[in-house]
Specification:
- Helix content is 37%, strand content 19%.
- The longest helix has 28 residues.
- It starts with a helix and ends in a 7-residue tail after the last helix.
- It has a seven-stranded mixed beta sheet with strand order 1-5-6-10-9-8-7, sandwiched between helices. It has a three-stranded antiparallel beta sheet with strand order 2-4-3.
- A hairpin with a 2-residue loop joins strand 7 and strand 8.
- The chain has eleven helices and ten strands.
- It is of the alpha+beta class and 349 residues long.
- Helix 1 packs parallel to helix 4.
Length: 349
């Protein structure tokens, strides 16, 4: 007990000395005041260390000694508040931050050129009354091939080197967004006027003008008395809106199993002005889409009467029109995520 009394007297004297030091402390700048707070009131400060002595106090003395420690803590806190208020009132508060300086620049995001072209294509066809339909990227054989007049072992399947997910039953990464057209026709809600944007996959050699995945927008219009003239005028309107009134257009006969008759549509190359480059294969023309009248077998497969209804379909890659629109000479730039390339489109809508 005698030892405890001696220790407590020393501690009480130390507290009185600390109070004198706190009382004599003066400062007007925030940095020094913050140093005061850390020294006395911080988690490793003197007040906390003194409060830790409570564990050594006998039970019968805890109330008495606790009051002394609380008074000491309150004394230090009141001093800190006085210092902080004084610094604020006197206008002497300083800061390392110059509030008159402009803020840090915020990087401005951008739309990807593929997204911009997709939205532009959709916007043009929506003005013609086309709705947007989307379908799955992993598809079964029926919706990707068979319903489109491409039965098993059909030679036209070799035109599309396919990524298969599994065999028997066949599931694959879709090779075109025509699968969405089949799903729309199966709903049986006629007439149909839709465009089907999305990503497709083909096992092709990657080069400046082709890739193993790309994006498409396909269109479908089915109603009574739809003709090839309706198809041509629809596509003429699209091309003029997309590339301007001076663009040259040509149709060439082609073959697609799901359309008959079929055609490919070319536009004059904007990269070389028709002189010839690697994008247009030195011809001055770039194929942008395939089209044709929906084959009667496709209508039958989707339970649509081909004697009553006719329709046209078309499909285009988005990358190639984007290359023409923005003067891009390598399709691989779209998927390389090179910021030097993408930043060119920062201000684009």
């Amino acid at each position: 007990m005698l030892l405890y009394i001696c220790v407590m007297e020393q501690l009480l004297q130390q507290i009185e000395d600390y109070k004198k030091e706190i009382n004599q402390f003066a400062a007007t700048d925030t940095k020094t005041i913050e140093e005061f707070r850390i020294k006395w009131l911080g988690t490793k400060g003197i007040v906390k260390a003194i409060m830790g002595e409570m564990k050594n106090v006998p039970v019968e003395k805890k109330k008495e000694f606790g009051q002394i420690l609380n008074d000491f803590k309150t004394f230090a806190e009141e001093k800190f508040e006085t210092l902080r208020s004084s610094a604020s009132d006197n206008g002497h508060q300083t800061s390392d931050i110059d509030l008159t300086l402009p803020g840090d620049p915020m990087p401005l995001g951008s739309r990807h050129p593929i997204t911009m072209m997709r939205n532009r294509v959709i916007g043009i066809f929506q003005r013609l009354g086309f709705a947007v339909a989307e379908g799955p990227e992993i598809e079964d054989d029926w919706h990707n091939f068979t319903a489109l007049n491409l039965p098993e072992h059909h030679p036209a399947r070799d035109m599309q080197d396919t990524f298969y997910v599994q065999k028997n039953p066949d599931w694959l990464l879709r090779t075109h967004t025509s699968n969405t057209q089949i799903r729309e026709m199966e709903k049986g809600k006629l007439p149909i006027r839709v465009i089907c944007p999305g990503r497709v996959y083909r096992n092709e050699t990657i080069s400046a003008r082709s890739h193993c995945f790309f994006h498409q927008v396909e269109g479908l219009y089915i109603d009574e008395n739809v003709s090839f003239a309706d198809l041509k005028q629809t596509l003429y309107f699209f091309v003029k809106e997309m590339y301007g009134k001076d663009v040259r257009v040509r149709f060439r006969p082609s073959y697609f199993p799901f359309t008959e008759p079929s055609a490919e549509m070319d536009v004059s190359c904007f990269i070389c002005g028709g002189v010839g480059c690697n994008i247009c294969k030195k011809t001055g023309w770039v194929e942008i889409l395939g089209c044709g009248m929906v084959h009667p077998n496709v209508l039958t497969n989707c339970n649509i009467d081909p004697n009553k209804y006719t329709g046209f379909a078309f499909g285009m890659g988005i990358e190639r029109p984007a290359m023409l629109k923005y003067g891009i000479n390598d399709i691989r730039l779209f998927s390389e995520n090179d910021l030097r390339f993408l930043k060119q489109f920062t201000s684009a809508i």
